[in-house]
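Weekly modeling sync, notes
Attendees: S.R. (lead), two postdocs, one rotation student

Agenda item 3: backlog of single-chain predictions. S.R. asked that every request posted to the team notebook include the full sequence so nobody has to chase files. The rotation student volunteered to paste the first one in as an example of the format we agreed on. Action items at the bottom.

Example entry:
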Amino acid sequence: MRFDFTNKIGIFAKTESMDRKKILFLIDVQNDFITGNLRNEEAIKAVPNIVNKIKDEHWDLIVLTKDTHLQNYLQTREGKKLRVPHCIAGTYGWEIEQSVMDAVKESGVPYRLFLKHTFGCFSLSDDLEHVLDDLDMGIGGGSDYFEFCGFCTDICVISNVLLMKASWYEWADFVVDPACCAGTTPENHKAALAVMNSCQIDIKNYGEDRQFQN
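Predicted structure, as returned to the notebook:
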């Protein structure tokens, strides 16, 4: 939990660092969601945008999630609804897209990988504070900046944005870049952005870019 409301000193229980940190969250930028079993033309278009974002902007930390399933995927609850095996651990489709992973490594920015077995990554929310502590970054006392990109906007991106927002809402600004995301369909992409916007997530160019127009 981010808060201890019984703390006699104030609402924030943890010692805060006032240095604003920029953290980039890359949600499931994996081969199967781009050119693999769940090939997506919009995701293919988004990959160069993600690479440019990594290279051209300053980041203090990059966090990547990897959707991770086993060979019994079709017997799982998710597999009974989405009958397409994907992101099976150890396969090519499970790996982070190569140009994105290369950009992350070449950036020199610290990065961390989180495996997840369902849409939302609970360990991401629970463990981010420990990651920041390990890197001697601390928490920015409400001044940090969290930006999210990845696939799919209407499933795993929105799940992780709202999961993180629920537990970190007083600690950071939350931003999503639609040009670095792709939904299961263009319509679902726009619908997910609208929901996130209503939940006080800042959507870049929302209401200005033609993709949001009817």
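Discussion: group reviewed the output briefly. The first helix runs from residue 41 to 56.
Action items: rotation student to repeat for the remaining queue; S.R. to check formatting next week.
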